[in-house]
Amino acid sequence: MSDRYCVFGNPVGHSKSPAIHAAFAAQCRQDLSYEAILAPLDGFAESMRAFAAAGGCGANVTVPFKEQACRLATRLAARAELAGAVNTLVFNGPDILGDNTDGAGLLRDLSTNLTCRIAGQRVLLLGAGGAARGVVGPLLDARPAALVIANRTAGRARELAQRFAGPAPLLGCAYPEVAGLSFDLVINATSASLTGELPPLPGGVFASGSLAYDMMYGQGPTPFLVFAGSHGAACLADGLGMLVEQAAEAFHVWRGVRPETAPVLAMLRAALAR
Ligand code: ATR
C-alpha cells in the first residue's frame, strides 16, 4: 500500500495541495497518496489522531488549525517553535513532529524564483497574524537592512517584533507610522485580500525598483497588488510560488528528496488562468 499523507483544513475543498503533491510524487517516483481531509472545527485533534492511527505518515495543516497543530505535536522543529504554528506533521508511532515550512517556502520563492535579494534591503511586512509570524524568523535570517512589521492592531505588530528582538533592526507599528518611509520589498501577510480588502497602507512606501509580494493568490491580481502597481512598485508577485515552495519543503521533510518546483508552478499558473 502507498504511504498516506493528507492536508487538514476547514474549509479544504479548494486546496491545491493534493494536486501539488501528486505532481511531486510522480516526478520523484515516490509511492504515496495525498488527500484533503475536512476536519470539523472542534475536531482537529481527533481527525489527526485517527489518520495517524490508520497508518498515515504525515500531514499538512492549513487554516484554521496551524496553532492547534503546534500545541498537539509532541516535538517541534526549531522553526515551528519560533513561528508558534505548524503546517507540516510527521507521524512516527506516538511521536508527532511539528514543523513549519511556510517561511522557507516564502524565502525560496523570493530568492530563487523571483531572484529578489533580501540582504541589505528594507523590508515591510504587513500583518501580525499566523501568516506573518511564520515568516519573520526566515526573513531576519536573510539579513535585511531593516524589517518593519505594520498591522491594523498595532499592539500585535509590536508584540511580534518583541518576540523576534535581536541584533537586526526590527520595528512593529501601526500603518500610519510607515508614512514617509520607503521599502525595497513589501510583503502582504494579512488576510485582507481574502475579502477583497486592502490594508490601510500609505501610498509612498514602494521604493523605485521595489517588489510587492502578496502571500494570497487568485485568478487576477489581489487588491494589494493593484494598489502597489499604481503606487510605484516595479515588480508584483502573488503567493502561488510560496504555496508550491512550502509544499516542496514539506515533501523534503517527509521523503528526503526535493522536487523540481518550476513545472508544478507552471501547471498551477496555467490552471488558474483558465
Ligand atoms: P492568519 O493566520 O491568516 O494570518 P489571523 O491570525 O487572523 O490570520 O491574522 C490576520 C491578519 O490580517 C491580521 O494581521 C489582521 O489584522 P489585525 O491583527 O488588526 O486583525 C490582518 N487583516 C485582516 N483583514 C484586514 C484588513 N481588512 N485590513 C488590514 N489588516 C487586515
Automatic annotation (TrEMBL):
GO cellular component terms listed in the entry, alphabetical order: cytosol
UniProt: NADP(+) binding residues: 127-131, 151-156, 215, 239
Residues at which shikimate binds: 15-17, 62, 87, 102, 217, 246
Keyword ATP-binding: no
Pfam families: SDH_C, Shikimate_DH, Shikimate_dh_N
Start and end residues of each Quinate/shikimate 5-dehydrogenase/glutamyl-tRNA reductase domain: 117-193
Superkingdom of the organism of origin: Bacteria
Recorded metabolic or biological pathway in which this protein acts: Metabolic intermediate biosynthesis; chorismate biosynthesis; chorismate from D-erythrose 4-phosphate and phosphoenolpyruvate: step 4/7
Keywords: Amino-acid biosynthesis, Aromatic amino acid biosynthesis, NADP, Oxidoreductase
Entry EC number(s): 1.1.1.25
Subunit structure: Homodimer.
Function: Involved in the biosynthesis of the chorismate, which leads to the biosynthesis of aromatic amino acids. Catalyzes the reversible NADPH linked reduction of 3-dehydroshikimate (DHSA) to yield shikimate (SA).
Protein name as catalogued: Shikimate dehydrogenase (NADP(+))
